Amino acid sequence: MKFIHYLEKISGVSVYGLSSLLIFGSFFLVMLIWAIRADKGMMEELRQLPLDKIKGAGKVPVILLVLVLMSSGAYAAGPPEPSSIDNPFVIVSIIIIIILALAIGLLANVLLGAAQIPSEKPPASASPSEDQKTYAGGLSVTASPRSPWSKSYLFLTATAINGVSDTAFYFISGVILLEVIILLVLLYNVRLVLSIHKKAKAVVAGEAAAASGKPRISWWDRFNKLKPIEEEVNLDLGHDYDGIRELDNRLPPWWLYGFYCSILFACVYLWRYHVSHTAPLSGEEYTISVQKAEIAKAEYLKKAASTVDETTVKQLTGTDELAAGQKIFETTCFACHGKAGEGGVGPNLTDEYWLHGGSIQDVFKTIKYGWPDKGMKSWKDDFSPSQIAQLASYVRSLQGTHPANAKAPQGTVYK
Amino acid sequence: MTDSRLRDAFYSTTINQFPIHPTNKTEHMQIEKFYYDNKTVKWFGYAVMFWGIVGMLAGLWAAIAMYYPAMNLGIPATTFGRMRPVHTNAVIFAFVGNGIFMGVYYSLQRLCKARMFSDVLSKIHFWGWQLIIVAGAITLWAGKTSGKEYAELEWPLDIAIAAIWIVFGINLFGTIIKRRESHIYVAIWFYIATWVTVAMLHIVNSIELPVSMWKSYPVYAGVQDALVQWWYGHNAVAFFLTTPYLGLMYYFLPKAADRPIYSYRLSIIHFWALIFIYIWAGPHHLLYTALPDWAQSLGVVFSVMLIAPSWGGMLNGLFTLRGAWDKVKEEPVLKFLVVAITCYGMATLEGPLLSLKSVNTISHFTDWTIAHVHIGALGWNGFLTFGVLYWLVPRMWNTSLYSKKLAGTHFWIGTIGIVLYAIPLYWAGFTQSMMWKSFTEEGQLKFQFLETVTHIIPMYVTRSIGGALYLTGAVLMVYNLFKTIRKGSFVANEAAEAAPIPAKIATHGRTYWHRWIERRPMQMLVFSLIAVAIGGMIELIPTFLVKSNIPTITSVKPYTPLELHGRDIYIREGCYLCHSQMVRPFRDEVARYGEYSKAGEFVYDHPFQWGSKRTGPDLAREGGKYPDSWHYNHMMDPSSMSPGSIMPSYGWLFDNELDTGRTEAMIRAMRKLGVPYPDGYAMEQANKDLAVQEKSIRASLQGDKIHTGSNKEIVALIAYLQRLGKDIKSAPKEQTVMKDADGSKVMGN
After folding, report:
1. ipTM for the complex?
2. What is the pTM for the complete model shown?
3. Nearest to B118 by CA among B229, B37, B4
C-alpha cells in the first residue's frame, strides 16, 4: 500500500490510468489468444452445438442470466446522478457495460447449449463422475482467485477519474466488474464443457479415426513453424556429440522476420538521426525540452498571481507564511546556519550584522542567487519565488532572538 | 501417456535408420581407450560453491548498507564503496568464472572425446585463478582499485589474469586439436568465441601506466576511457556471462532433457549474429553522456538488432525441451535450466529496450539497471550454475542426488528471491527517476535529491530480503550436494573409448557449408576474432583519432597535486559507485546540477569517473557549491548536513596522513600520459604547491571553527570535490555550447 502511495505523488505520470489500461489490455489479450487458439475444429463444434435444446432444462439459468443482464442494463441506463450522464467517463462506461452484457448473453447461450451435450450422450470415458467434479470445481475455483484482481482494479481507477461522485463511480465500476467476472466464469466453463465433450467424442471415435485424419496443428506450432514431434526422425542431421543429436528445424518465421525488422529499424534510425536530421540529437532534444518548459511556465505564471522577485518582494508577517518559511529553514538551511539561525558553517542570521545586506530584498536575492564563492548556493531551482519570500521573511524574523552558541558577527551592521 | 509411447517408438526408429550409435559408427576403426579428468572439474565445482556463497554474502552486505549505513562498522574495508566491487568481482569472476571452467572442463572433454590437453595446465589454471581471486578480494578491500567498473583489479593482477587466461586457452585449444570427434559442436564454438573475445577485451581495457606496485592510471582519459571501459563492461557481460553459459546450455540442457537440439541452423545463425552484433552495443551504457552522438546511436541500433540473436539462444533452448516438458515438472535440474533460459530471454529483451533513448532517460543511473542486471545474474547465471551442479555432482560421484525435494525447495526459494529482489528495484528505479524529473508548475524542481532517496528505502529493504532468500537457497544446495558427495564415491578418472578421427570423413545426407569450419578450430578462432574486432574498431578508432569528437575547452586545466591526491582517494573509496560525474542534457539535471557535461571537460581524467549509478547526487558540478566546512562535516557524519542520508561516515580520512611521497610518481605518470604539467614540476614544485593549497583549505576550515591536523587525507578530498566542474564555469561560451543549440540563454543567469 505504501508503495502505491509513493507513486501517487508523482505528477506527470498517470499511473492509475496506465495500470488499468494494462489490466484491460492483458484481459483482452487473453481473450484474443483464446479466440485464436479456437481453431477450426472448435468452431465446427460450436456450430454443431444443439442450441435449440435450451428450451428444456436450461430455462432457469437463462432466466437468471437475463435478469442479471436486465438489471445491470437498467442500472447502467440510469446512474444515480443525472448530472453525470454527459460525463465522458459515464458514457464510455455505459458502452462498455452494454458490450459486456451482449458478450455475456452470447456466451451464456453457447454454454447452455454445450451443457446439454454430456447429458445427451453419456460419455464413454471410465469416470464420468470425475469429469463432473472437475467441472463443478472449476466453477468455484474461477470465482475466487479473481477477487484480489478485481479489488486492485477498483482501487486503481478510483482516484484517477474525476467528475463522478464516489457512489456513482463505484457503482459503475462494480457493474463492469461483475460483468467481467461473469464473463470469465462463463468462458472458463465453455472451455471445460467443450473439453469434456471432445474427450467423449475422441473415445467414441476411437483410434482409427485419429490415425486416418491429418495430425492437428496448433496455433503455437503454426506460429513457430514447429514440425510435429513424430516427424522429428526426418529432421535428424545424424550428428552425435556425446549423445547429443541435432535437428534441422526451420527458423521460427516470427523470429526471422523480427530480426529483419530490427535491421530495418537500425537503418531508419541512423538515417533519421545522422543523415536526414529529422530526429533531434541529445543537445537539440535538451533545447527543445527547455523551450517547451519555458512556454508552459510562462502560461502558468500568466494565469497565476504575479510572482515576486527581488525588486517586488515584501516582508511577510502572516503566521502561516512564516511557518512555511520556518519549515524550509529547518529542513534545509539549518545544516549550515544552525537550527535557530545561530550560524555554523554559514554566518549567524540572528544578529544585526550582514555580509550581503539585511533588507528583505537583499536576503531574497542572497537566497535566490546565492554567493557561490562563499559557499552559499543558489536556491532558485529548488524553491519557488514565493517560497523564497517566505524563507527570507522567516530569516529576518529571527533578528534579535539571541540563540545559544551564536557565531561571532560577520559583515556590517544593517539597520 | 501417448506421448511417451510415441517417443519410445521414435527412438527405436532413429537407431534403426541412422548409423549414429557409437558402436555402429566406430565398427571398422581402432578404438582407443582413455580417461576423462574429473578431478579438475571437481575442484572448480568446489570453488563455484565456495565463491558463490562468499560473493552473495558480500552482495547482501552491500544491499543492507544501502539502508543501514552503519553496516560499514566504521571500517574502510567493509564500506559500500569497497564492498560493492568485492561483490561484483566475486560473483562474476569467482562464482561465474569458476562455473564456466567447471562446465567447460567437463563438457569439452566429452564433446572432444579426449582428456584435457594437459593435467599440469589444468592445475595451474585452477590454482592460478583462485589465487587471483583471493588477491583480488584482499586488494579491493584494501582500496587498491583502478576505479573502472568490473575491471577494478590493479595492474599486477591484470597481468596475472592475462597469463592464466592464456593457460586456459592453451588447454582449451590443445584439447580441441587432439579431439577424436571430427566436428566441433556448437558449445565449443561459444567457448572459442569467449576465449578470444575476453582476451581482447581484457588486454585493451587494461592498458595502464603503473604508478606504484598497486596503483596505475589508464592510458585513456575521459570520453575515450569511458568508451573503452563500457565497450569492455558491456562485453564482459556478453562474453563472460553470456556466451560461455550459452555453451554450457548447449551441452547440459540436451543431456539433462535427453532431447536433440532443436535447430542446428538456428545455432549457426544466432552464434555468428550474436558475437558480431554484441560487441557494438557498449555505448548504450553512455547514452546522453558526453560521448559523441554517432557512437551513442550505434549503441542503440546494435542493441535493438541484438534481440533476435539473443532470443535465438533462448528459443533453441526452450524448443529443445519439446516433448520433455513432463520431465521438467519432476527434475530439479531442468527446472533450474528452464528458469535460467527464460530469465536470459527476459533480460536480453529488456536490455535492448533499456537502450532506447526514451527508456534510458528514465532507467539510467537508477536501480532499474540493478534490477535488470540481477535478472540476468541471479536468473540466468545463478540458476544455470545450480542446474549444472545438481546434474554434475551425482554423476561424478556415481550416485544419485541426496534429496530431490530439497533441490525443489532451493528452486522455489531462489525463484521467490529473484522476484523479491527485482520487483522492488524496478519500482524504486522508476519512482526515483520520475521524482528526479518532476517540476512544479512554477518551474522549480519538485523534490530535493535526498527526498528521492529516502522515498525508496522500503524497496531497498525488500530487495535485501529477496537477496537473503536467494542466498539461503544456495546454502541449501551446498548442503544437499555435500550430502550427495558423502554418499557417493568420486570417479577421478572416468573411462571412455572412441576411435580417432578418420583421414576421410564420410558424409551422408546433405551437409551444411558450415560443417567446413566446424572441423577447423583455428579458423574458427580467427573468424570469431574478426567478427568481434570489427565493431570495436569502428567505434574506438574514430573516437581516438578524430579531433572533433572531443572539442577542447581552454579553461580546463590539469588537477593540482593536492586535487590529484584527493581524486585517488575518491577512487580508492569507490565514490564513483554511488555518485556520477555526468550531467546529462535534461532539463531536470541542468536545473539540479548545472550546465550539462561536455566532452572537453574530461581530457585529464585518467580514469574517467562518470559512474553508472546515482545513489547519491551527481558531483560533476560540486565545486564551490558548499563551503569547505560543509564537506568536512559531511564526510565526518553525512546525516549532520543531509538528514536522512544513507551515505556512511568516512572517519578514517580524518586520521590518515596524506602520502606526499607519492606525488612525484603520480605527476610523472600523468605527464607520460600527456597531461601538460610543466617540465620538472614533479620534482619539488608539486609538493610545494600541494602544501600551499593544503594550508589555504585548513585556513578556510579554521574560519568555520574547524581545526584539523596538517596533511590529512580529508583536505585532499575536499580540494578535489571543490574543483569539480569549476573549470567550465570560467570557459568562453562558444567552447561549451553546441553549435546549433541556443539553450545557453536558458542556462546562464
Report:
1. 0.88
2. 0.76
3. B37
